[in-house]
Design goal:
This protein is mainly alpha-helical. It contains six helices and four strands. The strands form two sheets. A two-stranded antiparallel sheet has the order 1-4.
């Protein structure tokens, strides 16, 4: 007798989630090894200088080329476009903490996304794909993608602004947290979060209708 094997409903999401989780763990382990051996830094802490680039600003024009001794031939024009980068050669603890905050919030959001994805997969395995448990896990994931992305972008922009203020004078505001949040949210996180919230409502409604049908039978 031949038996039909039930396909995994959570593929390829399960494979992709496992791949990124493994990649993240290996990256963290490698960073810690390099930091302990003195050949690199981990989270901004190490023996190497830290650098930050001024956001949303570009410097350019024909006047900047004169500093390099460049001239243009007749009938041509040259311009130079670039950004300002400041580096702390002997960074203090406060500067390294701010440098860590340039990437740590978004990394934490990714970790949380992987955890909630796994909860969606586990709920689908245990209770089925069209259940309230899956809808709740999917709803939490959707709000995490939207809210976590916005919070991480705001924290990273504020940390970058404060870090540049420790290396440049006069101290001023170099970034725009509101613009950074919009730039981080649009378009993928907002679309992905909204899609998850919508599918969560659809699944919850379907589960309620299924319960009503079972109650009437």
């Amino acid at each position: 007798m031949m038996t039909t094997r039930r396909p995994k409903l959570t593929e390829p999401l399960e494979t992709v989630t496992a791949f990124f989780a493994t990649f993240l763990l290996l990256t963290l382990a490698a960073g810690m090894v390099f930091a302990l051996t003195g050949s690199g830094s981990f989270g901004g802490f190490g023996h190497h200088p830290i650098c930050a680039t001024q956001p949303n600003t570009g410097y350019g024009g024909e006047g900047w080329t004169s500093h390099l001794g460049l001239t243009h031939r007749p009938g041509t024009a040259i311009t130079m476009n670039g950004t300002l980068q400041a580096c702390a050669l002997r960074a203090g603890i406060g500067q390294r903490v701010l440098y860590t905050l340039l990437s740590l919030p978004s990394d934490l959001v990714w970790v949380a996304v992987l955890i909630l994805l796994w909860r969606v997969i586990r709920a689908a395995r245990q209770t089925g794909p069209f259940t309230v448990q899956v809808a709740v896990a999917m709803r939490r994931l959707g709000w995490l993608i939207i809210g976590g992305t916005a919070a991480a972008a705001a924290i990273q922009e504020i940390a970058l602004d404060q870090l540049l203020n420790t290396m440049l004078t006069p101290a001023t505001g170099y970034g725009d947290a509101f613009f950074s949040v919009l730039q981080a949210l649009l378009p993928v996180p907002v679309l992905a979060g909204a899609a998850l919230l919508s599918f969560a409502r659809i699944i919850r409604l379907g589960a309620a209708m299924d319960d009503e049908i079972k109650a009437t039978v």
